[in-house]
Every structure is written in C-alpha cells, then in structure tokens.
Write a structure and sequence with these properties.
- This protein has 322 residues and is mainly α.
- The chain has one domain.
- It has eleven helices and two strands; from the N terminus they run ααααααααααββα.
- A two-stranded antiparallel ribbon has the order 1-2.
- A hairpin with a 2-residue loop joins strand 1 and strand 2.
- Helix 7 packs across helix 11.
- The chain starts with 6 loop residues before the first helix and ends with a helix.
C-alpha cells in the first residue's frame, strides 16, 4: 500500500524550506513586526501606575495580543481554505515560515565570525549587539564568542524548534500564537524596574509554552551530535541535567547547557545589561578555550538539532494519528 504523507508534515517541511531559501527579506511584510508594534502601543499606555495596576494591565496585554493573533490567523487560514484548498495550504506554509528563523540565526552567527576571525573586535561587537540584549562595547574575543554561542543555543528553541512544535499541533494559528507569546516575552518579560510587574504574565506564559520544546531540543541536539566529529556525547546529558536548572530561565538553560557540553566549553558568566551587572551561573566544563570556530560548530549543532526535531515530531504525529 502506498504511504501518503500527511498534509501537516508537508506544510511544516515546506515552511522550513521556504525559510531556508528566503529567510526574512526586508521587502516582504513580516507579521512579527506588526505584533511588535501592537505590543509597543499598549506598553506606552498601560505600563504605568502602582505595581498592582501594572500586573493587572500585564494580564490584559497578554490576553489582547495572544487572542488577537490567534483569532486573526485562524480567520485568515479558514478564509483561504474556503477560497481554495491550495490557497489555504500555501497561506499556512507562508505564515509558519515567518515564525521560523533558521536562515536568519545562522547568518547572524556567521556575520560575527567574519570580523572576529580577522581580529576586528569592533565590528564583531557591533554584529553581536544586533542579536543580544547585553552590552557589547567592551567584550573581548572570548566573551563575543560566548555571547554568540549562547544566542544560537537559546534561539534554537525560541526561533526554530518551538514554532515547529506548535505548528505540528495547531498549524499556522498556534505557530503564530507561539511567536506572539515569545515576542511578548522578548519585549516586556524583563526582570527590572520597568517590566517586573507589567511583563510577569507574558514571561510566565512563555515559560509554559517553551517547557516541553526546550527539553526536546536538548535531546535532539544531543542526537544530532552523533553525526558530528569531536562531539562530547558521553557525559552531555549528565552535565545538561546538572547545569540547566542553574539558568534563570526554566527553559533556556537546556539548550545552552547541552550546547556547552557538546562543544566542551563553558558558557554563562558575567554579563552587563544597560550598565547593570548580571552574573549568570556557569554551564559546562571548559575543556576547550572559546574560539570563533565554536560559533560555526554551534550553528552545525543547531542544524542537526532542528532536522532531528522535525523527524521526531513527524514520527510522533504519525504515531498519534495512526
């Protein structure tokens, strides 16, 4: 009997291929830009008053953004399918592709390697500042490498595997809703005087929707290591389980700790945000000194991780629907 590949698998794989081909071209309107503008609109108007008012408004913000994105995406998807099944399929494919950033993340990391490998720390710091929130003006070469590797590891979950996870569960509506939640967290989910109260709901919801994808990502990064020469696989899980809970985020530590273990380097340490020092827990064992080549290796692990993650989700979907 011929095997028919389910439509959702074709859509998700197609979305991944589209991202790999075109990424996020500036000339093409991106839904996340619109989500960000809407968040800023409410941030300016609702992030004020005493703490209890900010907390209440933070709940309102989360509900407004999440429900708006889910309902709009669902309405667009249904309308396209009513127009024609092909239109609905292509619409979902495109919308899901906007939630994935494989090409963008890979290119951003490689853009840091170019000046770093030639000793141009000034340009390397500038390129790093485009993808991290920490202060980069005084970072040395090892700290630049650490920032880049940590960003690749964290965003393997946030920008690749988690959107894929939610796309398999609920197509474009849930993938876009996940992206809205993640954007909320990245914009207002900070633990500082400005957002500690207003952003608490967004941050907690992001923790919930990333909980399972983050741990699955650590697993698929490890599995991907079997195809990588020099991967330190033997104690990777032991180190990851030891170090991941040290991270201030309940989820980010899993991919970062696994990446550190596989590379044989140490991540975490002293970061500065707007002049304020944050001393993050160390993850991994420094068998090797951080070098710009570790950025390229982290990108290779990232690619292996999302490929296996996609196969794993496809297998789970087929098993549950058999």
């Amino acid at each position: 009997m011929d095997m028919v590949i389910p439509l959702i698998i074709l859509i998700v794989v197609g979305a991944i291929m589209l991202d790999l081909m075109i990424g996020d071209p500036r000339w093409l309107p991106h839904p996340v830009v619109g989500i960000g503008r809407l968040i800023r609109f409410f941030d300016k108007r609702w992030n004020r008053g005493p703490a209890h008012i900010k907390k209440r408004n933070g709940v309102y913000l989360t509900l407004v953004i999440v429900l708006s994105v889910f309902l709009i995406t669902s309405a667009v998807t249904v309308s396209l399918y009513k127009l024609h099944p092909v239109a609905g399929t292509l619409g979902q494919l495109y919308m899901i592709s906007t939630t994935i950033a494989i090409k963008g993340l890979s290119q951003a990391a490689r853009d840091i390697v170019k000046p770093l490998s030639t000793g141009d720390l000034r340009d390397a710091r500038r390129k790093l500042s485009m993808i991290v929130g920490r202060d980069t003006a005084s970072l040395n070469d090892e700290e630049i490498v650490r920032g880049a590797v940590e960003t690749v590891a964290e965003n393997t979950t946030d920008a690749i595997t988690a959107p894929i996870f939610w796309a398999f569960i609920g197509g474009a509506p849930l993938a876009m809703t996940y992206r809205a939640i993640n954007t909320l967290d990245s914009m207002v989910g900070y633990k500082n005087n400005t957002y500690n109260d207003f952003g608490w709901c967004s941050a907690r919801l992001d923790d919930v929707v990333n909980w399972l994808p983050a741990r699955m990502t650590a697993l698929t990064l490890w599995l991907g290591g079997f195809s990588m020469k020099g991967a330190r696989l033997r104690h990777a899980w032991q180190l990851t389980c030891r170090d991941a809970p040290k991270h201030p985020s309940p989820n980010s530590g899993w991919s970062e700790a696994m990446m550190a273990a596989l590379l044989g380097v140490q991540l975490g340490g002293r970061n500065t945000y707007g002049g304020e020092v944050s001393d993050r827990a160390r993850m991994g064992v420094p068998f090797e000194q951080l070098h710009w080549q570790h950025i390229l290796l982290s990108v290779r692990y990232m690619h292996g991780g999302w490929v296996i993650f996609t196969f794993l989700m496809s297998g789970i979907w087929l098993l549950l629907h058999s």
